[in-house]
């Protein structure tokens, strides 16, 4: 309010004070001062609130933020997208690193933030809380998320065959799964593949301990076997002077899609064009990575501070090709999924007691809608 207003009000109150007994003067002065203070505080609060609202409006940006918000913007501004990895950056995430480093996302007008994961990255909650728009997972993770009530949907599966394996030293005496008896198995407890192995009796007599995220224990002790991905840890072990062999879990009949790009049903419903744009660009990133992974690997190496090497990434990219394109698949088919594969997975996990088939259906787990690029 104008300063003059305060002055006029003070003069009026002073006139009233002159007309009453001097004994009331202190009381009147107190009332006047209280009133003026209240008005000043109210005015200050109002101005402060207006400034705060203005700052919030001015502070919006199309750049990725910590909460992963997406803004499509206008006038050619790029849409902000955050993608959460399910592990430390490795070859299994090559498609997004390739698309970011070779300009594929830029051409699609996408401002993409890739967030490294770790040993216990909460993919489902991160998506549900809208802290990111997309994430990486395995197909069995998607089934579990939906069983838990999370609306997570697979939109692209980079790897048709799962790279999960049990890594053993060549001098361990282990040549097949039945030879694991008496060994110490480092694994992530609760994983569906572990329960599948248990259901086949392959973990009887095996000492199960937590997985520590590296091959260090196996390097030191031939009686230790570790969970691994066939295109990563084997070379890391060999680079440290230890010959190894792999026992592929997919050979047992448990073979969920891997390097699966997931999002939420809500984002699909509310921003289908954003989903289509990101899926199309990411698929192109995977096709480029599988053909010539050098730029993607450089970006992965720069983002990984957990002992990854350029040689291991080159090895991984080469080893991934038959997993991404098995049985003569062409690059144009990369990412496709089938209802039959999802049905098999749901059935297997139901038999293991991990999900209720009445709660989780194959159709709710995935969509190929955005792979057409139309």
TrEMBL record:
Keywords: Membrane, Transmembrane, Transmembrane helix
InterPro entries, sorted: NMT1/THI5 (IPR027939), SsuA/THI5 (IPR015168)
Origin: domain of life: Bacteria
UniProt entry tagged with the keyword Transmembrane helix: yes
Residue stretches making up the SsuA/THI5-like domain: 91-295
Single Gene Ontology BP annotation: thiamine biosynthetic process
Membrane-spanning residues: 20-39
Keyword Membrane: yes
Name recorded for this polypeptide: NMT1/THI5 like protein
